[in-house]
Amino acid sequence: MVLVFVGFMAGYNHFDSSLAMGSLGLLTTTFFTFVPCFLFIFAGAPIIEKTRENERIKEALTLVTAAVVGVILNLTIYLGQAIIFPGEFTLSGIDYITLAWIVISFIALQRFNQNVITWILISAFFGLGTYLVQQVL
């Protein structure tokens, strides 16, 4: 979605704020982003189905799964650091409101089994409210 937005902005800004060219950039980016993915899925799905019982392939996919989990964990730590410490990486640079919301979110999702989509909406409104309050102050 970010890539599609960038495609729109590139077309829009390159051709003197033209909505038509922005839309063309959006459509072009969408086409060349998603069509290859779907082609790989449609071409590869029958092959993967034929190899379901192959133990070597299962082991390889287990390794890929472990690598993906590692990448997600790395990204979580990187983004968490950027959010909790927006300025300098010291105790005085901690955003305590964000840290408190992370703890509240973790408890709500783990202990009280809140719906993730609902909690994302609640968090979005909390973030918007926090931003507006900080702008007023």
Write the SSE topology.
Elements: H1 2-14, H2 19-50, H3 55-84, H4 96-110, H5 116-136
Helix pairs in contact: 1-2
Distance between the termini: 33 Å
N-to-C order of helices and strands: HHHHH
- In DSSP terms, counting alpha (H) and pi (I) runs of 4 or more, how many helices? 5
Structural class: mainly alpha
Form type: flat
Largest sheet: none
Number of distinct beta strands: 0
Mean pLDDT equals 90
Low-confidence stretches: none
Radius of gyration, taken over Cα atoms and rounded to an integer in Å = 22 Å
Name the helicity range: over 70%
Question: How does this model look, in words?
Answer:
By secondary structure, the protein is mainly α. Helices cover 81% and strands 0% of the residues. The protein has a domain at 1-50. The chain has helices at residues 2-14, 19-50, 55-84, 96-110, 116-136. The two termini are 33 Å apart. The mean pLDDT is 90.
